[in-house]
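User: quick one, sequence for these tokens?
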């Protein structure tokens, strides 16, 4: 549906090009009490709720397919960012994760538009 599309591959490449945002961060730079994984889960969750809210005609089966895809995406992000998942998050990282989550939402929006779900 989404994870097998070129757009998703491009998003993962985009993430890997910005991995420097997640490297060599000291605790002094982290002003938040949230961790990277908490922020990823929250932002992805919000965007997927938006997808389902904006597309109320989705069947139960389609919504379940979306949830499975999000689980797969979360797994990929956990693999890529495994060394830093439990670190406190910086403002720059939060901004990037919000942007990344919106891009993920856009992939779902496109899949729904073209009835690929």
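Assistant:
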């Amino acid at each position: 549906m989404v994870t097998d599309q070129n757009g998703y591959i491009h998003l993962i490449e985009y993430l890997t090009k910005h991995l420097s945002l997640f490297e060599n961060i000291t605790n002094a730079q982290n002003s938040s009490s949230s961790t990277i994984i908490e922020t990823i889960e929250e932002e992805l969750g919000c965007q997927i709720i938006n997808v389902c809210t904006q597309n109320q005609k989705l069947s139960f089966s389609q919504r379940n397919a979306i949830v499975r895809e999000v689980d797969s995406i979360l797994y990929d992000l956990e693999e890529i960012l495994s060394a830093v998942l439990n670190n406190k998050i910086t403002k720059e990282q939060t901004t990037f994760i919000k942007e990344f989550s919106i891009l993920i939402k856009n992939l779902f929006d496109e899949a729904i538009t073209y009835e690929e779900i």
